[in-house]
Design a protein that fits this description.
The structure holds 2 protein chains of 2 kinds. Chain A is mostly beta strands. In chain A, 0% of the residues lie in helices and 51% in strands. Chain A has strands at residues 4-7, 10-13, 19-25, 31-38, 42-51, 54-57, 64-66, 76-78, 87-94, 103-104, 108-112. In chain A, strand 9 and strand 10 form a beta hairpin. Chain A starts with a strand and ends with a strand. By secondary structure, chain B is mainly beta. Chain B has no helices and 11 strands. Chain B has strands at 4-6, 11-14, 19-25, 32-38, 45-50, 54-58, 61-66, 71-76, 85-92, 99-101, 105-110. In chain B, strands 2, 4, 5, 9, 10 and 11 form a 6-stranded mixed beta sheet that branches. A 5-stranded antiparallel beta sheet of chain B has the order 1-3-8-7-6, with no helix packed on it. Chain B is globular. The chains are: A mainly beta, B mainly beta.
Chain lengths: 113, 111
């Protein structure tokens, strides 16, 4: 049981480039989330999904896009990378219902130069 | 904006002492409350959840919830150097499906 798998673990992008951060979970969780974590700023929600075909914006969605074509996969797309997107990105999932908590992936450390 | 506040620390305690971590939240309708531990360079891992007023104990960890005061805390008894990490408080509101996180409290346990 792999849990939540994120790839890549590290990436350096040049300003204006695009990339997709991959996230896959094998726990049949309904809900999936993308957060970014900046030093001293806590975790900020980018996008989330409550099931295949359904996505919604979080607190900081600008510059990002997501899709959820299957229960397992929830990729995050960065278009036209900017230095402000330098951060650590975490994907998380959880089962519907209280009080199920998040299971996090190992994170992707992204630097935009 | 739903806010979750924690003292960023750093909090230092000697080995064997009790570490007390605190969290307040703004959404009075919040339902469930979680404590995550995050080691440097790693992802957060769930250590406790609580959704009823009072105390919940799990080994050396005790979560305390007071909904009237909008306050949740985590006590770590017999603190060990391996407990040195950042502790994140997370709150789920009465609407929506996401959690709101505090900025975390850095704990150092001194041998």
């Amino acid at each position: 049981n792999a849990g939540v798998t994120q790839t890549p673990k590290f990436r350096i992008l040049k300003i204006g480039q695009s990339m997709t951060l991959q996230c896959t979970q094998d726990m049949n969780h309904n809900y999936m989330y993308w957060y970014r974590q900046d030093p001293g700023m806590g975790l900020k929600l980018i996008y989330y999904s409550v099931g295949a075909g359904i996505t919604d914006k979080g607190e900081v969605p600008n510059g990002y896009n997501v899709s959820r074509s299957t229960t397992e996969d929830f990729p995050l797309r960065l278009e036209l990378a900017a230095p402000s997107q330098t951060s650590v990105y975490f994907c998380a999932s959880r089962m519907r219902g209280v009080p199920n908590g998040y299971t996090f992936g190992s994170g992707t450390r992204l630097t935009v130069v | 904006q739903k806010e979750v506040e924690q003292n960023s620390g750093p909090l230092s305690v000697p080995e064997g002492a009790i570490a007390s971590l605190n969290c307040t939240y703004s959404d009075r309708g919040s339902q469930s409350f979680f404590w995550y531990r995050q080691y440097s360079g790693k992802s957060p891992e769930l250590i406790m959840f609580i959704y009823s007023n009072g105390d919940k104990e799990d080994g050396r960890f005790t979560a305390q919830l007071n909904k009237a005061s909008q306050y949740v805390s985590l006590l770590i008894r017999d603190s060990q150097p391996s407990d040195s990490a950042t502790y994140l408080c997370a709150v789920k509101g009465d609407t929506g499906n996401q959690f709101y996180f505090g900025t975390g409290t850095s704990l150092t346990v001194i041998p």
